[in-house]
Write a structure and sequence with these properties.
- The complex is a heterodimer of chains A (403) and B (236).
- Chain A has 403 residues and is of the alpha+beta class.
- Chain A has two domains: 181 residues, no CATH class; 192 residues, no CATH class.
- Chain A has a six-stranded mixed beta barrel, surrounded by four helices.
- In chain A, helix 1 packs across helix 11.
- Chain B has 236 residues and is an alpha/beta fold.
- The longest helix of chain B has 16 residues.
- Chain B is globular, with a radius of gyration of 17 Å.
- The chains are: A alpha+beta (403), B alpha/beta (236).
- Chains A and B meet through helix 1, helix 10, helix 11 and helix 13 of A and helix 2 and helix 3 of B.
Chain lengths: 403, 236
């Protein structure tokens, strides 16, 4: 009964000062919306990074020729070439049970490809057909090239969607002749669009048989990399160490002076998601500060309200309100402000996250909505308790005398 | 408003009450040994100049403040050592206040103002609404129930305040300069209302400095320097 009464008195208090109440509510609204939206941006960006890594194939392991380490340990070493024989050695079932396949890769960068007078510069990847599965590249139109094409050195090519868009427009490329660096290739297939964010367009690619690329474009030097595939996501760490030990024995190197680098996509995914978590926590912390500021706004406005209504508090006490009745009236008022702010903040954040923010599509975490709402209620109770206590402790005679 | 059932104890019994403010040199004796007994159904006016201690006496009698020494029994209950929350219960159950400046809750309707003491008592809404409307009717403002204080004249506001004081059927109606802010017409309205309340059996203590207001009472007490200077019964 008393609680119901306090609720009505508190609601009246909120409604009596509409402008003041709405400004206070705005403070909480901004805080709550900031927390939810910024967490959603952090979440969205880590989802986007994870998705683009997954598109590259999460089971894939890249062996890259050369070392990025600073000279010192490896200086003076003669770097051995990464060869097709290395790639074949990696598929040895006895030494590398966790490796499903290994495809040698030779890149020809910035090759100008022309069809019917339109040209586009792209990089051509020379490899084996097993590469398509490892790199998660599917042909949607036409066909993959075959192992026979590799053996024969056929001038066939599979192109990405961006190349199609740039060179062909609406023409169906399959069966046409695309001239790259003066070499005519027959287009046999078009890759499925990967899309994605980032600096590199995963669809701006062309893939041809390794032998053809080596003979026509790059020559027979060291491979650029070997793209291996682990038997499963769980086996990728085992596959990585198997690859290292095989290559170490073939190249006569140890872990201190390797002339190659092994990059495991699965561990890359873990690293990127943990760094994204830090980023998300930082964003959330900044937003939480604005929520705190909103809470201080509630204390401020409630103190004003209590001072303004000192006489009213005195009257209420004179006619029989006890401390609890006064306390709960002002607590209800403060909590109403924060709850209205919290609810409208949640609504605002739902609207805002429909739009891209800094190139990231926010993905709302349901827990953050619930959390921000609960926190806003707690803020009302916490930041309202000091002013409400002050009101409850007033002595009736002094309060009545207040002008 | 039925007559309270008569019983043995007086409504107010003050024995050797003193009230001091401050400490040491600066100490002020606002009340200095007051003995006062007011029986059920009396209409008493307490008079005195400003500084005579009548406001302090009103605060003590109204359970808004506690005595320094001496004892105070209200309706047979000794309230000297009660906690602040217990005092608020006593005020709610036993006392109806009428103040000089009306003291209605601002931006709140007359009806809600009159309902408030019943709400703090925990009465359900339907019942308190019924009683509040009856109380407003009894002061002739049944048709103004939905008006806020700013929509009412001074005299009307004071009548709402009287309705609020009477709605709990208190043992004591305590009126502190109830006509101090009113013109002469409203003054006589309010005094008539208090007098008819008295005729219906309520105990009324009226604090005033005006003789014509005090003239309505049966008993007039003069305070000087915190002491009772005279205590006369007037047969009107």
């Amino acid at each position: 009964m008393i609680i119901g009464e306090s609720f009505r008195q508190g609601l009246t208090g909120v409604l009596q000062n509409k402008l003041r109440s709405s400004l206070t509510v705005l403070g909480i609204l901004i805080g709550v919306a900031a927390v939810i939206v910024l967490l959603a941006v952090g979440n969205g960006s880590s989802k986007a990074v994870a998705a683009s890594i997954e598109k590259l194939g999460t089971n894939s392991i890249s062996v890259i020729h050369g070392t990025f380490r600073t000279p010192g340990g490896s200086s003076g070493n003669v770097q051995k070439d990464l060869t097709v024989a290395d790639a074949i050695a990696l598929t040895d079932e006895a030494n590398a049970p966790s490796v499903k396949s290994a495809s040698p890769v030779k890149q020809a960068g910035s090759v100008s490809c022309t069809y019917a007078g339109t040209s586009h510069s792209t990089s051509i990847t020379g490899t084996w057909p097993s590469y398509f599965q490892t790199a998660n590249s599917k042909v949607t139109n036409g066909n993959y090239f075959s192992n026979e094409d590799v053996t024969a050195g056929s001038r066939v090519i599979v192109i990405g969607q961006s190349v199609v868009d740039q060179v062909y427009g609406t023409v169906d490329p399959v069966g046409t002749t695309l001239t790259c660096a003066g070499v005519p290739f027959t287009v046999v297939g078009v890759l499925e669009k990967k899309g994605g964010s980032g600096f590199q367009d995963p669809d701006d690619v062309a893939i041809a048989p390794l032998s053809t690329v080596q003979r026509q474009l790059t020559g027979y030097g060291s491979l650029d990399s070997i793209t291996a595939e682990a038997a499963s996501l769980e086996a990728s760490d085992a596959a990585q160490s198997e690859i290292s030990s095989i290559l170490d024995s073939r190249h006569g190197t140890t872990s201190t002076n390797r002339d190659y680098q092994v990059i495991n996509q699965a561990s890359l995914l873990t690293t990127s998601s943990s760094s994204n978590q830090v980023f998300t926590v930082l964003l959330g912390a900044v937003a939480a500060i604005s929520l705190l500021v909103g809470g201080i706004g509630i204390t401020n406005i409630m103190l004003v309200s209590v001072t303004e209504r000192t006489r009213e508090i005195g009257i209420r006490k004179a006619i029989g309100a006890n401390r609890f009745a006064i306390l709960s009236q002002f607590l209800v008022e403060a909590t109403l402000l924060s709850v209205i702010g919290g609810a409208s903040g949640v609504l605002a954040s739902l609207v805002i996250s429909q739009f891209q923010i800094a190139g990231v599509q926010p993905v709302i975490m349901p827990l953050s909505v619930l959390g921000a709402f609960i926190v806003s209620v707690a803020i009302g109770l916490f930041f309202g308790s000091y002013p409400a206590n002050r009101a409850a402790r007033m002595r009736p005679i002094q309060a009545l005398r207040h002008e | 408003m039925t007559n309270p059932i008569p019983d043995s104890h007086p409504v107010i019994q003050l024995q050797q009450v003193t009230k001091r403010y401050g400490l040491g040199e600066a100490q002020v004796r606002a009340l200095d040994g007051i003995d006062l007994t007011i029986q059920r159904g009396e209409f008493v006016a307490i008079m005195g100049t400003s500084g005579s201690g009548k406001s302090t006496l009103m605060n003590i009698v109204g359970a808004l403040d506690i005595v320094t020494t001496g004892s105070y029994e209200l309706d047979g209950i000794n309230i000297d050592r009660l906690s602040e929350d217990a005092l608020s219960v006593v005020r709610n159950r036993k006392i109806g206040f009428v103040f000089q400046s009306f003291n209605l809750i601002p931006r709140t309707t007359a009806l809600a103002n009159v309902e408030l003491p019943l709400a703090y008592r925990g009465m359900d809404r339907k019942e308190r609404r019924r009683r509040a409307l009856a109380a407003l009717d009894s002061v002739g403002l049944g048709d103004r129930a939905d008006h806020g204080p700013t929509q009412l004249s001074g005299g009307q506001q004071q009548r709402v305040a009287i309705a609020r004081a009477l709605v709990t059927n208190p043992s004591l109606v305590l009126a502190d300069e109830p006509t101090g802010n009113l013109d002469s017409n409203s003054t006589s309205d309010v005094l008539d209302l208090l007098q008819s309340t008295h005729y219906r059996g309520n105990t009324i203590v009226l604090i005033t400095h005006e003789d014509e207001v005090a003239a309505r009472a049966q008993r007039v007490i003069h305070l000087v320097d915190g002491r009772i200077a005279s205590d006369e019964r007037v047969n009107s």
